[in-house]
TrEMBL record:
Gene3D superfamilies xref list: 3.30.300.20
Protein name: OsmC family protein
Membrane-spanning parts: none
Record SUPFAM superfamilies: OsmC-like
Pfam family, one: OsmC
Superkingdom as given in the UniProt entry: Bacteria
PANTHER family: OSMOTICALLY INDUCIBLE FAMILY PROTEIN
Residues covered by region (Disordered): 1-25
Length: 143
């Protein structure tokens, strides 16, 4: 199985004064504003790191859901947030960390098994494999 998805961005003007818009091929995002002000000054709109955080959280959560199902569980829920860090370095900026925090409730499962499957999902979800940054994981299990 293979899928190909698309996204696009435009940027009018240059540098800090420029304004951009980002869209996804599915239309889930359509001409959402982004630029220096949305990335560093909390202006309305999105930014690349926020989009990466959403992508990582959703990819990991789906991967963990599949790991839970493969382990024989059929009920429960998983919620994950990701915090992506952008830092200034000598040669510009770099994404240096994606911190996942996941919370799960799976009847009949113990915390150790949840943590084992979560670690597997963290290592093997496609977005984790894509990122060349430290990826951390914090689990919260409700039993």
């Amino acid at each position: 199985m293979k899928t190909t998805n698309t996204g696009s961005a435009t940027y009018e003007g240059l540098g800090k004064q420029g304004k951009g818009h980002v869209s996804t091929g599915s239309g889930a995002l359509a001409a959402q504003p982004y630029g220096f002000n949305t990335r560093f000054e909390d202006a309305p709109g999105t930014n690349p790191e926020e989009l990466v955080a959403a992508a990582h959280a959703s990819c990991f959560t789906m991967a963990l859901s599949f790991k839970l199902a493969e382990a024989g569980f059929s009920d429960g829920h998983v919620t994950t947030s990701a915090e992506v860090t952008l830092e200034k370095q000598d040669d510009g900026f770099a994404v240096t960390k994606s911190a996942l925090s996941t919370k799960g409730k799976v009847p009949g499962m113990d915390q150790a098994k949840f943590e084992e499957l979560a670690a597997d999902a963290k290592a093997n979800c496609p977005i984790s494999k894509l990122l060349n940054a430290e990826i951390t994981l914090e689990t919260h299990f409700e039993g």
